[in-house]
Amino acid sequence: MVNNQVGRWHWIAKYLATLSLGLYVVQPWSISYLGIPLQVVFIWLAFAVVTFSNSRIGRPFTVFATYEWVLIIIFGTFVTCRSLIDGDQLLRIYQLLTGIVLATVVFRISDDERTRRLLLLSIALLAVASTLVAILQLIGFAPWSWRGTMYYLSGNKTPCGLETYPVSYAFSVIGIGVTLLATEFVAKRNYLRSNVSVLPPLTLWLGFFILLGLAISGSRSGILGMIMGVFVSILLAHLYGIQVLGKAFVYFIATMVLVAGIASQTDILERIGSKAERISEDTRLLSNWAIFYPVIVEYPLGVPGAIIKEAKARGVVGFGSRNIVEKAYEANYGYDPHNMLLTTAVYYGWVSAICLVFFFISLFLRGINFLRKDRNTNNKLYGIYALLALGALTAIIVHSWFHNANLALGEMRGWFWVGLLLWAIKPRGAREPLGASDSPPTPPILDGRL
Length: 450
Description:
66% of the residues lie in helices and 1% in strands. The chain is mostly helical. It has helices spanning 2-25, 38-52, 66-86, 91-109, 113-138, 166-186, 190-196, 203-217, 220-239, 247-264, 268-277, 287-298, 305-317, 324-331, 340-348, 350-373, 381-400, 413-425, and strands at 32-33, 36-37. Strands 1-2 form a two-stranded antiparallel sheet. The radius of gyration is 22 Å and the shape is globular. The chain folds into two domains: 2-281 and 340-447, no CATH class; 297-331, no CATH class. The relative contact order is 0.14. The chain contains 18 helices and two strands.
């Protein structure tokens, strides 16, 4: 009776989380209920299920380490105080809480293999679908898809799939793109590949398909992030004692030739090349630190929202600056810093930015420490999930380095990989796998068979 009850609650949480994660990949096409996006409603319902169900999976406060909770609380306090002062309806604190809830749900329900694979499958299928739409946009098809983008009424359109614009498209696909690519490199042995691969035997090819989508969108930081994510996964695999050399590298070369061939027949290379020519003028590389550093010093607790709003307006139209904030925004053409740490520091103070840095450091140190200790184990499944999640987080951090959104500022997709990482590295004795009989039958594709 207890097992059936656990299985029933787990089944509900699993499908609520699956729907939520899928909608996060294609956010513009979600619907809202009372102004709240449906993916947010679903993930909070899933959290309620895993928290209040009569089972051992309902312990929400043991997901993060104590010092990680301290960092979250400090940051949350700064965000709450700034929001109350500025009167912006606590949007950021709601987003932060939703991210924590998302990570908690993933952490709690991932002991079941079918659940893990279903969550990854939902993200992968919609990421591939979004990439396919980006390709169709490039060649002049799928005119309906522009309705969900910022280019709907614009004559100058940039492919961005089922997302609003290229930056957001990259955030929605780079994590699963790293996972698809890196799986074929690090899960060399057949039993590991069949347990981890999302869509065998297409895993590697779909990873390169997403990389092609990033090239089509022209997202330089997305491409760099995905490459760095795969590279980190490979390095961690060596640390973990997994040899990554094999036929996957042959596939890699063949696919890169194919991607280059496709790119040469379109304006992809021209678009990327034109952006590359502007790299030396890009303030995100170095000069934005010089531009916004005086602002952070002047406002250690964050700049009031009204001042930022005025500075942005004056910076765009070029009325001339009157104070240090307006000078910074005028030098940056009216834009935020386009760097996750600088933007966090400008809005919520340098203490908040430091908390974000140490939060990421904590995640990576815990993950690497687990890989070192778990190196000699016979069952490397958990370690592979850990290094894949670390690779995905690397990609998101690299991408965020050149943009404003991040885990602390409303970018929700990264919290999935946080939850998956923390699940993978938790003590073996704390795992509570649910029996296959506790879940409905899984379609053959989730069992590794096509």
